[in-house]
Specification:
Shape: globular
CATH architecture: 3-Layer(aba) Sandwich
GO molecular function: oxidoreductase activity
Helix content: 25-40%
Number of helices: 8
Bound molecules: nicotinamide-adenine-dinucleotide
Strand order of the largest sheet: 3-2-1-4-6-7-9
Number of domains: 1
CATH topology: Rossmann fold
CATH class: Alpha Beta
Protein name: 3-ketoacyl-ACP reductase
Largest sheet: 7 strands, parallel
Pfam families: adh_short_C2 (PF13561)
Number of strands: 9
Strand content: 15-25%
Structural class: alpha/beta
Organism: Robertmurraya siralis
CATH superfamily: NAD(P)-binding Rossmann-like Domain
InterPro entries: NAD(P)-bd_dom_sf, SDR_fam
Radius of gyration: 18 Å
Distance between the termini: 43 Å
Length: about 260
């Protein structure tokens, strides 16, 4: 039986860890060839070998997705290898420095914005010339933060980048509709990944602006735990496939109702 994404090619950023890794494995399992884009080559090498063991194809593209040259060049390498792009997952991101606005260095603000928001613009921009002829699906990883949730004090740069992705994604959905390119956003709540490695928090600084909020019975109404990357990967498969063919410019929350509290 033909697989759901048979013959399609995906460009996936942040594919070395967490949500990006789980999504790459899921799309590959469903027939897509996947280009794995990440800062950390050893991690995407590992994902590639997992994919190849299960009989699918993957390509390692080490790149910093906040660099225009590196993103453009990654697409060139992919085109050279497979000659087409159908699916794009603009997912790479960091939490960055978590601190009061007063203490946030402009360089730290810029780092979060360039890793999360500028990278999304670049990942979409450089895909367009290659997707125009055949159409396809672009999925952007935003967050509950910046869209529904503002209680994570100290995350002003992160939340700004995440609501920025929402505005950009909706503009892109409208602009790219004539090429049959769909653009959708996902808004995860807490998911068990390695993002804490890219979270720089100074607890003492935060104390001066913190607003105490308590959830005596936890803040995960549905499953009483954080989500798993594999659960997010199922959503990516749906948005990548023709099962979501009339959905564009939409956001989907995947948070077990955490953001409604
Ligand atoms: P993760 O740290 O496990 O994976 C992120 C990957 O992105 C890493 O492999 C990292 O090397 C890569 N990356 C970061 N900056 C990069 C850059 N400039 N160029 C290339 N690669 C880069 O984290 P994750 O939780 O899987 O994060 C994926 C996305 O999900 C992020 O956009 C994050 O903001 C979003 N998100 C995560 C959560 C959560 O709770 N984990 C919640 C909401 C949204």
């Amino acid at each position: 039986m033909e697989k759901l994404l048979q013959g399609q090619v995906a460009f996936m950023t942040g594919a070395g860890s967490g949500i990006g890794k789980a999504a790459a494995l899921k799309l590959a399992e469903n027939g897509a060839k996947v280009a794995l884009v990440d800062l950390h080559k050893e991690n995407i090498e590992e994902v590639k070998s997992q994919i190849e063991k299960s009989g699918s194809e993957a390509l390692v593209l080490e790149a910093n997705v906040s660099s225009p040259k590196e993103v453009e060049n990654s697409y060139k390498q992919l085109m050279h290898h497979w000659g087409r792009v159908d699916l794009v997952f603009a997912n790479a991101g960091i939490n960055g420095v978590v601190t009061p606005i007063e203490d946030l260095d402009p360089k730290e603000w810029e780092l979060t914005l360039s890793n999360n928001l500028t990278s999304t613009f670049l990942t979409v921009k450089y895909a367009i010339p290659h997707m125009k002829a055949n159409g396809g699906s672009i999925i952007i990883t935003s967050s509950i933060n910046g869209n529904r949730v503002y209680r994570n004090i100290g995350m002003s740069a992160y939340s700004t980048s995440k609501i920025g992705q929402m505005g950009f994604g909706k503009m892109a959905a409208l602009e790219l509709a004539e090429y049959q390119i769909r653009v959708n956003m996902i808004c995860p709540g807490a998911i068990e990944t390695n993002i804490s490695e890219n979270t720089w928090k100074e607890k003492d600084n935060l104390k001066k602006v913190e607003i105490p909020i308590q959830y005596p019975e936890g803040n995960q109404p549905l499953e009483h735990r954080a989500g798993r990357p594999e659960q997010v990967a199922d959503l990516i498969l749906f948005l990548a496939s023709s099962q979501s063919s009339h959905i564009t410019g939409s956001e989907i929350y995947i948070d077990g109702a955490e953001s409604l509290l």
